[in-house]
Amino acid sequence: METPLNEVPTPQELPKTDNPTPQPPAKKRRKWLIPVIIGAAAAFMLVVAGIVAFFLLRSSDPPFKPDTSLIPVSNGEKWGYIDKKGNYVINPQFKDATWFNNGLARVQNEEGKYGFIDKKGNYEIPAHYSQATIFNEGLAFVVEDGGHPTCIDKDGDTEFEFTMADGVCCFQEGLAPFYILNDKNEAKWGFVDKKGDVVINPQFTYVHYFNNGLAAVANDKDKWGFINKEGTYVINPQFDNVGDFHDAGIAPFKSGDKWGYIDKKGKYVINPQFESVSDFYENIAMVMQNDKCGFINTKGNFVINPQFENSSVFIYGEGLAAVAMDDKVGFIDEKGRYVINPQFDMAYDFCDGFAFVKSGDKYGLINPKGNYIVNPQFDNIKRPYLDFSLVQSEYYDASKFLKSFLSNFTASQVDGMPVAGVTLSDIASHNRYSEDWKSNLWYRSLTLKQDDDITDDINLNEVSFSFSSDTYNYSYDWWSYDKTYHYSAPCTYATYKFDLDHKAAYRAKSIGTALCDKLRSIYGGKVSPVESKYAYVFVKKIECGSINFIVSGSYSSLMMTVFFDQDTYQDTIRELTKDDEEVVVETEPSDY
To answer: How far apart are CA 22 and CA 15, in angstroms?
Structure first.
């Protein structure tokens, strides 16, 4: 499955039935990013490590099949929409695009902002959000730069602002899962209704969406059960993992390292015996036994014996499932007979009479007989699956941080040092560093570890300087040597690195924006984004003439670099924006 900005991972123990239908093991291309002068930044994940990694959220497919009249495809880096004959209806122009649902599709423009379009490609809701879910049940959650999650209707009007939530997902069956962070930086999940009322208080470590009136939840001991819409346990937490209830009225559960199935009273229907399983769709479920995939009925009897390397499920009422054999993918019917022989490099589920397949490095569309409706010609295509995404709060009151950190930043000084040009002498006499700078000086660089708690959740952990000439030399005698410092050595740049903890984490962009605005108000100049090829949440520059700044943010960290040298500043901008080489590496195939 494509992994959009806000995608939530599926349970790793369960077969990923909301992934693209199986593809054989293959080499994966991965781009490795080389950090530059302003420091290494971890790749930002709105699927938040340390928060979202502590919950599981899955959506049911059949009730939420998207409108397939227009199909999102890409050639190159641009997404557009085609009809079922392969003709463009909306020309490629977006950085990202989802399927239509509720008459609208979420798209991302060139500036990285999200909005919603109609089927003619016109914006119904302008693209000015930094995050957005899709519309479902007539509502979506959006986040503006530095803002709280906000629920909007299809006209773009605000239904309610969800200020207490640190993150929130789509509505399903009238309720939306949301989380808050407690004092231990742990996510606790609950549910909110369409009026903005919290109907189930945040208390769970993990949650699923509601399906057929029940939601799977896990307690703080990582035991799973099911609750109703009043938040009352219908099935007490006792399982190591679970799936969801669908049309068959039974759901997967895990006990130890084996999977079985329970009914809505929590009674065993099929004893735990499988290595992995799927939810039931069309009264058939895919199970894995002895590393082979097969299919069972609701009594636990095999209707298709385990024999496939990989498999999807029977879904959308199409009567076909994709299976992988000998590095190729084909389709079988509900009796296990090949309807389309294995011949594709990858395939998606059939939906509304067509399926996407990949041959070589291009995607096309086939009919249930395996004939091409649209020849392979697209670089990427999205499976007919709704992107039930997560948005996270970006709000952070940075006033205390700015006041504390920028107390020695004035129109004529930077951290108490002269704007006109910082030298080693200025750094040596700076009361922040005392004598520590001597042991950390290395000819043309100086890195000082700090332990300054600026606020409860923002810590200045390092300050580094670079010089345009050597900062010292040695004079030797037969019994000793002396280090002679060049106090007049000019500094080319200084970098401040911050750790963001707890509430500040994942809000680097909001804090960084506030920092940029404040620096601009002190030193003048213009704030503008930098389209960096590196894995930062954001990079912004502030060009002030005599000095320039670059502020960057990544997952749980923030960096500010002030440049006293124009050439070094321009070199850094060029390094940030140049294309990085792509490196091909061998990786193991992902678990299924």
So the answer is: 11
**pTM passes above 0.85:** no
Residue 493 near residue 465 (C-beta atoms within 8 A): yes
Same domain, yes or no: 469 and 336: no
pLDDT (tens digit, 9 = 90+) per residue, 420-473? 889 999 998 887 777 788 888 889 999 988 888 999 899 999 999 999 999 998
Q: Which of 344, 369, 392 is the last residue of a domain?
A: 392
Q: How many other CB atoms are there within 10 angstroms of residue 271's CB atom?
A: 12
62 contacts 281 by C-beta, under 8 angstroms? yes
SS3 assignment, position 161: strand
Task: Give the structural domain span for 554.
Answer: 399-577
Q: Are residues 549 and 515 in the same domain?
A: yes
Which tokens sit at 98? 């989802």
CA distance 417 to 589: 53
Answer yes or no: is pLDDT of 590 > 60. no
Q: Which residues have CB under 8 Å from 540's CB, separation 6+?
A: 512, 513, 516, 527, 528, 529, 530, 550, 551, 552
Q: What is the DSSP secondary structure assignment for residue 164, as one 8-state letter?
A: T
Whether 381 and 489 map to the same domain: the answer is no
Query: Residue holding tokens 């061998």?
Result: 586
8 A C-beta contact, residue 159 and residue 192: no
Asked whether residue 525 is domain-assigned, the answer is: yes
